[in-house]
Design goal:
Number of domains: 3
Structural class: alpha/beta
Strand order of the largest sheet: 4-3-9-10
Number of strands: 15
Bound molecules: adenosine monophosphate, zinc ion
CATH architecture of the largest domain: 3-Layer(aba) Sandwich
Radius of gyration: 27 Å
CATH topology of the largest domain: Rossmann fold
Distance between the termini: 38 Å
Order of helices and strands: EEEHEHHHEEHEEHEHEEEHHEHHHHHHEE
């Protein structure tokens, strides 16, 4: 299996540190508002990476943090006359609500900065003791000149940053070098703070991930991931902190998702060009949002538009309909057993699985994986039309649900309809069939409408009336 490593700028064979196990850390959101669809991308993409690694037999420990100490949370709390804790707790719940809707599996751990404060202070202290950090009036800075490999991830040259300047390197008189960054800052009036050897204060942003990764996964991890905007300075700084403190390589593979853009500009809160997942979910089902994200390769940009969402909804429906039609066909198939010819064809089904795995093994190409699923859908539709045996249809259905399951898409809920409801639906369908026989078309249409009001769609097929929710 090959993965693109931002650290080396090439696809590399994936070999975890410990055989059969993967330790994975993904930077999570700052919880001051609902997540937008750009924030949802790393959620869905790295959930899929995790699912695929599990599918390949790895035992994955997946850590995703919540940043629950931050200026933006404090500002919102002050505006709403709430505590920082009240604001962050609310938006952690909201983030879980969206993640559940997007079929993102819960991480093994979801640590929060406020629960890790002692360890954060300890790591800052270690960095000071080892000579990698210095103090100026209660602020602790990381001394980037003391870490010669600084810049190795983003490939930024320290000298360029100093002379050219960058919007992401803040100018601060107290810093020894422009790339130095804050590990700890002194308390400001009216802001939450914690006691430390340098007085009351709170941590800078980057230190939390170095601490949480070490605490929950150890000094060296296999995969560290996030959006590409985090490469510099966040991930660069995480490497500096962790490697300076621990004297070991921090992460073996660095994976970064591309942006979701609007009119080819990054979607972001600060530009105001964002759509929250919650708002989009009011117009399209959550599963369409997941499908939309997986339709592109995770490193390519995706330009968000209603038209593209609509096209994705249609595509997903095509896959789900094929699954429902197979289910219906299996219930009503005339021939049980596979013919000899079908037995030969059934072996060919494996080629879809092989193709699927080949593209996923090539840096998680979910876009091509979905194309393979579409091909299988076409194959399935032809088989159903040709009137294959039940046994063969079951094989096709199992392959389709197997591949969809790996991506967490097109799940058809079988448990949603109770026996009682099924009886009622089937009674109505029988009544409609009677009405049609009696040429009472208005009566038949009225029953169709009644079923539609119950959320049930019906379809007249050669095998009889097919029905499903949706
Ligand atoms: P934030 O809360 O801004 O730190 O973002 C949380 C995660 O979403 C990070 O991994 C970001 O890189 C990612 N992210 C933010 N905006 C976008 C975007 N427009 N497209 C893709 N990923 C994004
Ligand atoms: Zn991080």
């Amino acid at each position: 299996m090959k993965v693109y490593n931002t650290l080396t700028r090439q696809k590399e064979e994936f070999v975890p540190i410990e055989e059969g196990k993967v330790k994975m850390y993904v930077c999570g959101p700052t919880v001051y508002d609902f997540i937008h669809i750009g924030n949802a991308r790393p959620y869905v993409v790295f959930d899929t990476v995790r699912r695929y690694l599990e599918y390949k037999g790895y035992e994955v420990t997946y850590v995703q943090n919540f940043t629950d100490v931050d200026d933006k949370i404090i500002n919102r709390a002050n505006k709403e006359n709430k505590t920082m804790q009240e604001v962050s707790s609310r938006f952690i719940q909201e983030a879980f609500h969206d993640a559940d809707g997007l079929n993102v599996k819960r991480a093994t751990m979801h640590p929060r900065v406020t629960d890790e404060m002692d360890l954060i202070i300890q790591m800052v202290k270690d960095l000071v003791d080892k000579g990698f950090a210095y103090e100026d009036k209660g602020t602790i800075y990381f001394d980037t000149k003391r870490f010669p490999e600084y810049g190795k991830l983003s490939r930024k040259n320290l000298e360029d940053l100093i002379t050219g300047g960058s919007e992401r390197v803040s100018i601060d008189e107290a810093k020894k070098n422009p790339t130095d960054f804050v590990l700890w800052k002194p308390k400001k009036e009216g802001e939450p703070s914690w006691q430390s050897p340098w007085g009351e204060g709170r941590p800078g942003w980057h230190i939390e991930c170095s601490v949480m990764a070490k605490h929950h996964l150890g000094e060296s991890i296999d995969i560290h991931a996030g959006g590409e905007d985090l490469v510099f300075p966040h991930h660069e700084n995480e490497i500096a902190q962790s490697e300076a403190c621990n004297g070991a390589q921090f992460a073996k593979y660095w994976l970064h998702n591309g942006f979701i853009t609007v009119d080819n500009e990054k979607m972001s809160k600060s530009l105001g060009n964002f759509f929250t997942v919650r708002d989009i979910a009011a117009q399209f089902p959550y599963e369409v949002i997941r499908f939309f994200i997986l339709n592109g390769h995770y490193r390519s940009p995706i330009n968000f538009s209603r038209d593209l969402m609509q096209a994705c909804q249609n595509g997903l429906e095509r896959i789900k309909n094929a699954r429902k039609e197979l289910d219906f066909y299996i219930q009503n198939a005339v021939n049980d057993k596979m013919t000899d010819e079908e037995k030969t064809q059934a072996v060919e089904l494996l080629k879809y699985k092989e193709q699927f795995e080949a593209v996923m093994d090539d840096d998680f190409n979910t876009a091509d994986a979905i194309s393979v699923i579409y091909e299988l859908v076409r194959f399935s539709n032809i088989a159903v039309k040709a009137g294959v045996s039940k046994e063969y249809a079951v094989e096709i259905r199992d392959m389709l649900s197997h591949l969809c399951g790996v991506l967490g898409i097109a799940e058809v809920s079988e448990d949603a309809i109770s026996d009682e409801e099924t009886e009622k639906i089937e009674a109505l369908i029988a009544k409609r069939t009677e009405a049609k026989k009696a040429k009472d078309f208005a009566g038949a249409d009225a029953i169709r409408d009644e079923l539609a009001a119950m959320g049930i769609t019906i379809k007249d097929t050669r095998q009889g009336v097919q029905w499903f929710r949706g």
